[in-house]
Write a structure and sequence with these properties.
Blueprint lengths: L2 H27 L9 H15 L15 E5 L11 E6 L10 E8 L7 E2 L4 H25 L5 E2 L10 H14 L6 E2 L1 H22 L7 E2 L5 E4 L20 H15 L4 H5 L1
Antiparallel strand pairs: 1-2, 2-3, 3-7, 3-8, 4-7, 5-6
Helix pairs in contact: 3-5
């Protein structure tokens, strides 16, 4: 392709993109469907995902276990396709750092006989559990800190020689804040870390407080997405992206998926 052809192609591409922008702006001015009200934010995110995807280097992705709850930006779906940020359940049997996609089942707070009830306030219960554990950790660290004013030893179970559980909590607390694991920790650093984690807990609670409703899985909306669409954790204490639903609920979702896409009577085949 010579220089003139390249320039003409670039001009044509720009024309298509400008026309696309005109259409999207026109829709956002007069949205006749509620999903289009958030379209500007969604399209900006989509452009960022495409920019990341356009990089020449092969990215390394996070690995997710089956049943993990993730927070996904589904973007603006066409027609009845799923739209907007929602929680979802990872359904892949195996995942690895080089795999750039995940198959997920979206979650919703809306009740429907076709949906699977995952329990009352699933998300808020997860968040509350994390907050409880973090508060207990802070109380433990604070109690250890009060034992003496000089730098205290974390490694070696100095304060809890017969309590490996509490020792592990202390180890994990330090590792969350110290890039280089040290045997001794400055008490002033501990004060800063406790304060930081209290702020992190508040941010988590503020963000997820609106998700204190019943949670239902939508097996019929199962889809494969790019891992670029998985939204980043709020902070180091955020459990979303790490916690999994129980195996019984995973099995319920799998059976419903099979029933919805295959002409096989599961009940007859398992009886």
């Amino acid at each position: 392709m010579d220089y003139k052809e390249i320039k003409n192609k670039q001009k044509e591409n720009r024309k298509f993109l400008e026309k696309s922008c005109e259409i999207l702006i026109d829709i956002s001015k007069k949205p006749k469907n509620k999903k289009f009200e958030k379209m500007p934010f969604s399209e900006l995110n989509r452009a960022k995902y495409l920019r990341r995807d356009n990089k020449e280097r092969t990215p390394k992705f996070k690995r997710y276990k089956k049943g993990t709850i993730v927070f996904v930006d589904f973007g603006i779906g066409i027609g009845n396709e799923f739209s907007h940020p929602h929680f979802a359940i990872v359904m892949d049997n195996k995942d690895n750092l080089s795999k750039g996609t995940l198959t997920v089942v979206p979650l919703t707070s809306k009740e429907n006989k076709k949906f699977i009830n995952l329990g009352t306030d699933l998300i808020s219960k997860i968040i509350n559990t994390v907050i409880k554990e973090a508060v207990e950790t802070q109380e433990l660290v604070d109690a250890v800190f009060q034992l003496e004013e000089s730098p205290f030893t974390i490694k070696g179970a100095v304060y809890y020689p017969n309590d490996m559980y509490n020792q592990l909590i202390l180890d994990n607390f330090v590792k969350r804040h110290s890039k280089t694991y040290r045997e001794t920790v400055n008490p002033e650093d501990v004060k800063k870390w406790i304060k930081l984690e209290r702020e992190q807990l508040k941010n988590i609670l503020d963000f997820y407080s609106k998700y204190d409703k019943n949670t239902y899985a939508k097996p019929e909306n199962i889809m494969t997405i790019s891992k670029f669409r998985i939204m980043k954790s709020i902070n180091a204490l955020d459990p979303i992206g790490r916690v999994q639903i129980d195996k019984l609920n995973i099995k319920k979702i799998e059976e419903r998926i099979i029933k919805s896409i295959l002409s096989i009577d599961i009940d007859k085949n398992t009886s």
